[in-house]
Structures are given as structure tokens and as C-alpha cells.
Amino acid sequence: MTGISDSDRAAIRAEFMRERGYWRAWTETLLQEHPAFVRAYAAYAGHPARHGPLSERLIELIYVALDASASHLFEPGLRTHMARALELGVQPAELFDVLHLVAAQGLDGVTQAAAMLAEECGADLNGTGDDPLSVLHALDPDYACAVRAFLALPSPGQGLSPAEKCLLRAALAACFTAHHPRALRRHLREGLDLGLTPAELLQAIQLGGHLAVHGTALGVQVYAGLRHPAPAATDCL
């Protein structure tokens, strides 16, 4: 690339690492091919963590949840953010509370689909209230009881507070990887009732957007492999 010096690239690299806390082979390739992207992405992706009321500890726990989510399963990010969470003093019980919430994420789809099934079958389920499991209880009470028992599973130690769990649920439901408007609205209402502020909830929502760069990272890695293929292996006799 022309028009940018090595010192400019070094400054962009340092800025990225300040904002995002890591540097990878794909970011180096991007720095060489499209340095303006690296600079703009660092500012965009770093903004939610720098501007907002959530603690660094909670931010890292949200990233752990988003990267571990079955809708994303991004192990490099999970390792980065879980390691940072442990450095910040997060306890194992708190991490396993996060992973419990991740495991429960799939139930949002089940409750919504069950409600649609009930509607299509003409089931009379009026008066079930705002309980997302009420339709499941009417259709399959034993399953609903098992679900309630799983959701009520206590932490293995001194875990997250109800408000923190709600914040993580909102982040998971808001993320583009498994966006669930009905569940998100429920979590937002619960969070406000628990005393979370709009600014806290907004920050949790914002943290999920830039995970889409993992697709960019994959594309950059493929590009680098095509442009600079590894030498073919040879048999040594």
C-alpha cells in the first residue's frame, strides 16, 4: 500500500492494541492492505468499552458470553476475554454462571416456537401472563418443570447477581448472532425493574455488534493464504 509510512502503521497497531487488547495475524494483514479499516474499526469497537457505566469485569463477562454462545462459538475471543476476566479477579463460580446462561439461550427459541405452535393449533392459552414458559407448561408440563429446574440451578459458589445475569441475557438476546426481539424486550423490562439503567443496558447491547469482525478475520485469513500459500509438504526418505 502507498501513502502510509511504517511509522504510521506502527501508530495504528499501537492504537488498536490499546483499544482491543490483542493483535493477530489477520490484523497485521489488514494493516498492510487496508490500514484505514484497522484504525476505524479500533475506534468503533473500542467505543462501547470506553464509554459507559459498566465495569471492566462485567464487560469481559459479556464478551465471554457472546463468544461462548452456541450462535458464535469463537474460541480465540473466548480465550482472550476469559483470561482477562480471570486477571481481573472474576471467580470460577461467576464464569460458570455465565456459561449456564449461555446453555439456557436456546430456550428463547423454544418458547417463541411453542407460542407459534399453540396459535396455529388454535389452543386457548389466554390468561397465561408474561411468563415465557406458560405456553410450554400448557403444552408439556413435565418439560416445563424440567426447564424451570434447570433455569433455577444455583451457582456453584458466590456467583452473579440477578441484575448481572439479566444484563448478560439482554446482551445475548440483542446480539446479531442470535437476535431475539421478544426475549430481549422481556430482559430489558426485567433489567429496568431490577434497577439497571438505560445506559448500562445500552452498553451491553453495543458490545455485541463488533463481533461481526470475526467474519472479516476469516476472510482476511483466507486471502492471506491465497496470496501467500504455505510451501507444499515434501516426503523425506
In CATH, the architecture is Up-down Bundle
CATH level-1 class: Mainly Alpha
Number of helices: 13
| Silhouette | elongated
Following the backbone from N to C, one meets helices and strands in this order, namely: HHHHHHHHHHHHH
Round the mean pLDDT to the nearest integer and report it.
92
Major sheet summary line: none
Q: Pick out the low-confidence regions.
A: none
Q: Could you please say which CATH topology applies here?
A: AhpD-like
CATH superfamily: AhpD-like
Question: Assembly state here?
Answer: single chain
Helical fraction equals 55-70%
**Class based on secondary structure composition and strand pairing:** mainly alpha
Distance between the termini: 43 Å
Q: What is the strand tally? A: 0
Strand content: under 5%
Q: Work out the count of structural domains.
A: 1
Any idea what the radius of gyration is? Answer: 22 Å
Labels describing this entry:
237 residues, mainly alpha, AhpD-like, 13 helices
Task: Please render the helix and strand layout as text.
Layout: H1 6-20, H2 25-33, H3 35-50, H4 56-68, H5 75-87, H6 92-104, H7 106-120, H8 134-139, H9 141-151, H10 162-174, H11 181-193, H12 198-206, H13 213-227
Helix pairs in contact: 1-3, 2-3, 2-13, 4-5, 4-6, 4-10, 6-10, 10-11, 10-12
